[in-house]
Amino acid sequence: MTSSFGLFWPGKEDALNQASLPAKASASKASPTQTDFSHPDGNILYAGDNLDALKSLAAHSPASVDVIYIDPPYNTGRDFLYRDNYRNRREHRSTDHGQWHAQWLSMITPRLILAWQLLAPTGHIFISIGEDEVAHLRMLADELFGQANFANQFIWKKGGTGKNDSRFAITEHEYVLAYARSAESPGFNTDPQGHTTTKYNFHDDKGAYSLVRLDSKTLGYVPSLDFAIHDAEGQEYLPHQPAGQTQVARWRWSKEKVAEHYEDLVFRRGFVYTKNYQKQGARPRSILDGERFGVTRSGRRDAESALGISGIFDFPKPVRLIKYLVDIGGPKDAKVLDFFAGSGTTAQAVAELNEADGGTRTVQLMQLPEPTAKSSAAHRAGFETIADICWARMHAAGLQAQRIELS
Question: Which whole-number Å values give the CA distances from 385 to 2, 229, 369, in the listed order?
């Protein structure tokens, strides 16, 4: 995977090799009926190191996941053991920013390699990331996944306010990097609430429509697509050539298609048009801004409402954001994976999406059972580990799920 051009850091080769080493932990079943890595069906929480879980899952069920969403720990110069900025995170004493970047990249690299192996040929992966590592992650993902598979870099407005102590500008956004597994991907699904900038100023019995010129100067000249079309009064129309030029513009339709769909043509002001009818939804857009995508505060409220505990996580992503990504990223029966599950937001997103559209999506989560701080609200509520919080949220979302402990 290495090349003469790309992102390099101390420890990169070891990080690349980590993906091919055997898993250090194995699954222990909590009950005789529980599934294992060879039959990863339904909703599952893998409580353990996600690197081991990914290795085992990739070995037994490669190319089986339709949508991967992850919100990996952001590198802010702190210990990034947790997905969210949990209250007991320890400050690094080092001020070497290069060391922070190297450690973060070495952590994420083998996990991304294994995630790629798990994606189905038509699958998509979405990665939430902040300003500190987005440039590095983009270069790394281009190398691991291939630049040709880059799908989009969404910009999510995480809130209407920001810290006023910024030296230059207040940061109000984060990013979501998206990649398609292969050329077999059909692209993102239509955003059902999306809209276009087109104005549909005309109406007929089929609905609202806009007019689109039938001639084109940009598609490349083809002699067979340069012919005369006559309106009902016999007036002749030809592709409109640029001033002083010939053989540039041509029709978008062939003679046969013009004859077959002649009733759909509109002759107006010296040009020939086709009708572009307004459709429900639109292609997803790269700016995720507004109530429908949620903000940081709504993500916190989602977790608190689901679990009935205040202050359980500082910065979980909003359910609405993940619902949107899962919706555009895969089919209604998609297998969804989140291997930095945190409080289990992705599980709630999948459950709510299924309820809304009748889907049968399933979700697999991976979360390290790191002990909660004894002074935390989560610990006082009886949650001994972060995996326990995630497990509780899966049940709160109404999901029938199984839990596999890695030991």
Answer: 38, 73, 5
User: Is-contact 149 180, C-beta < 8 A?
Assistant: yes
At which of 221, 248, 277 does a domain end? 277
Nearest one of 320, 336, 367, 351 to 158, comparing CA atoms: 320
Residues 16-47: tens digit of each pLDDT: 999 999 988 777 654 444 455 666 679 999 99
- Please choose, from the candidates 185, 198, 213, the residue with its C-alpha nearest in 3D space to the C-alpha of residue 279: 198
pLDDT for res 318: 95
Domain extent, residue 110, equals: 12-193+284-406
| 215 located within any domain | yes
CATH classification of the domain holding 120: 3.40.50.150
Q: Are strands 250-251 and 287-288 parallel, antiparallel or unpaired?
A: unpaired
Coarse DSSP helix, strand, coil percentages of the chain, rounded to the nearest 5 percent: 30, 25, 45
CB 49 within 8 A of CB 316: no
Rounded CA-CA distance 403/387 in Å is 10
* Structure confidence by residue, pLDDT tens digits, 154-183: 999 998 655 666 678 888 999 999 999 998
Residues near 87 by Cβ (< 8 Å), separated by ≥ 6?
A: 311, 314, 373, 375, 376
- In tens, the pLDDT along 315-335 reads 789 999 999 999 999 999 999
For residue 332, the 8-state DSSP code is T
Instruction: Give SS3 for 407.
Output: coil
Among 226, 257, 277, the domain boundary falls at 277
Residue 3 lies in a domain: no
| Long-range residue pairs from 260-267, CB within 8 A, at least 24 positions apart, any chain | 265/214, 265/229, 266/211, 267/231, 267/232, 267/235, 267/237
133-137, 138-142, 177-181, 306-310, range with the lowest pLDDT? 306-310
Q: Which tens digits make up the pLDDT trace of 257-268? A: 999 999 999 999
HSE of 350 in the Cβ direction (CA atoms, 13 Å)? 35
